[in-house]
Design goal:
CATH topology of the largest domain: pyruvate-formate lyase- activating enzyme
Number of domains: 2
Number of helices: 17
Largest sheet: 7 strands, mixed
Oligomer: single chain
Helix content: 25-40%
CATH superfamily of the largest domain: tm_1862 like domain
CATH architecture of the largest domain: Alpha-Beta Horseshoe
Number of strands: 15
Length: about 475
């Protein structure tokens, strides 16, 4: 059996979580753009549809796809998008039974062939890094020779060998933002628009029990060269006027000297940008932050998760309360804003410990914080723990329709803990967000930063989205 050998348009889709509801704040999804651009570079006609940000209804999305008369449609899905993918696939097959449909992304890397148990409308699945595998599939390569491919041969499901991790990340083309409307993307904390996202590395060596990132990109850290990274920054700066950048790496500062070289290259080329990143509190120092600040870094996001050392240890974060405090102090002394991510409803957590986290968040001096209920995503150690401990009433929660009033932060998959129910966790999350942002001292500090009517508009949107008023 061979792949598609496409002679027509390939459509790649980022599905919504809830049909008819787009996201006010999100960055371009790089995974699907990398695959699309890789196909383009090799002469394949491709179009990207980002329904996550556009919020198409089911009927609208199906019509947009079929209007292009594609030879194959590919979806990239997180677990919270899996149900939407099933519904779109069913609608597409109903209207055009011969259309071939493929699904990849984090959800498939976590669950492999499981989705075949829920539908007959999907033909092919891809797990792991998909650029090379999907290209071989599109040009008609023998199915049995395509690593990372899962397919059906009669009643038998074939799971091919995992794809090799891409070692030479510099060899990948820069994601082509011509494939999307870059003006539709925004952030809670953007300094200017348009903005872009960038992946400078792949792989994370850490073992947090709630994370599934290693199932796609592995645990081996692979770095692009600083010159290649800044080439991409400069290209988007010149071509699209992008002056706001978000590094989407899990832990940007894992290799500090490499980060210093990136900063030096930005300064050397006199690129005037502002940028943010994610990292861990145990991978930083004040001198590094000062270097980052000089190249345009103005905010760093930390996965703090909890204010309880017992819970941090249970989550295998590998960090301490003191390291959290120290990292935030480095930000303050360096003139960089700090954002903290927190999780409520972790394994064995009590409501008192969750409240300890809320109090801790308000004492740290963070500039921004966001709280969400902990969800057990398939493929993670947390998911296994939840199943083994009867803490997840529905192990296939991600295959159910998400309520229209909900979003990714309040989807299902929450842990049913002793004396701390999912309903109580969700209520505490709302309480945490409101109590953080409506403190008089915080509101005064925030209001003093507002300079223009645009700042006012962004502030209203941000507060409504963060706090869910």
């Amino acid at each position: 059996m061979n792949g598609i050998k496409s002679a027509g348009m390939v459509i790649l889709v980022c599905p919504p979580i809830v049909f008819g509801k787009g996201k006010n704040f999100t960055y371009p999804f790089l995974g699907i753009l990398y695959i699309a651009t890789y196909l383009q570079r090799n002469g394949i006609a491709v179009k990207v549809i980002d329904s996550f940000v556009n919020g198409h209804t089911l009927s609208e999305l199906a019509e947009i796809i079929l209007k292009e008369n594609p030879s194959v449609v590919g979806f990239s899905a997180m677990s919270c998008q899996a149900k939407a993918v099933l519904e779109v696939a069913a609608e597409l097959k109903k209207r055009r039974p011969s259309l071939k449909i493929a699904v990849g992304g984090p959800h498939i890397s976590s669950t492999k062939d499981e989705i075949f148990n829920f539908t007959k409308d999907i033909d092919f699945l891809f797990y792991g890094e998909g650029e090379e595998s999907f290209y071989k599939f599109i040009i008609g390569g023998p199915l049995e020779e395509i690593d990372g491919l899962i397919y059906k041969n009669g009643d038998k499901i074939i799971i091919n060998s995992p794809p090799q991790l891409i070692r030479d990340l510099d060899g990948l083309p820069f994601p082509n933002f011509e494939l999307i409307d870059i003006k539709k993307y925004d952030s809670f904390f953007a300094k200017s628009l348009p903005l872009a996202s960038l992946m400078a590395s792949r792989g994370c060596p850490y073992s947090c029990i709630f994370c599934d990132a290693h199932l796609t990109h592995g645990k081996m850290l692979r770095l692009r060269t600083p010159s290649n990274i800044v080439d991409e920054i400069e290209y988007n700066y010149r071509k699209y006027g992008v002056k706001q950048l978000m590094f989407k790496d899990s832990d940007l500062t894992l290799n500090k000297n490499w980060v210093r070289e990136i900063c030096s290259e930005i300064n050397k080329r006199h690129i005037k940008i502002t940028w943010t990143c994610n990292t861990r509190v145990d991978l930083v120092d004040e001198e590094l932050f000062r270097t980052m600040k000089k190249s345009g870094c103005y905010m760093i996001s930390f996965g703090i998760e909890s204010g309880s050392q017992r819970i941090l240890d249970a989550m295998r974060k590998g960090i301490t309360i003191e390291q959290i405090k120290t990292a935030i102090s480095f930000c303050k002394r360096s003139g960089i804003e700090a954002m903290g991510y927190f999780m409520i409803g972790n394994p064995t957590e009590t409501e008192n410990e969750a409240r300890e986290t809320i109090r801790f968040s308000q004492k740290l001096g963070l500039d921004l914080a966001t709280f969400g209920t902990t969800a057990a995503y398939p493929g993670t150690e947390l998911y296994k723990w939840a199943i083994d401990n009867q803490a997840l009433p529905d192990r296939f929660w991600y295959m159910k329709r998400v309520a229209v009033s909900s979003d990714a932060r309040e989807a299902s998959g929450n842990l049913n803990l002793k004396d701390f129910s999912p309903e109580r966790q969700a209520k505490l999350v709302k309480e945490a967000n409101k109590s953080f942002y409506f403190r008089p001292s915080y509101l005064l500090k925030y209001l003093l930063k507002i300079r223009t009517p645009y700042d006012v508009k962004r502030s209203v949107k941000s507060f409504r989205d963060l706090i869910k008023i």
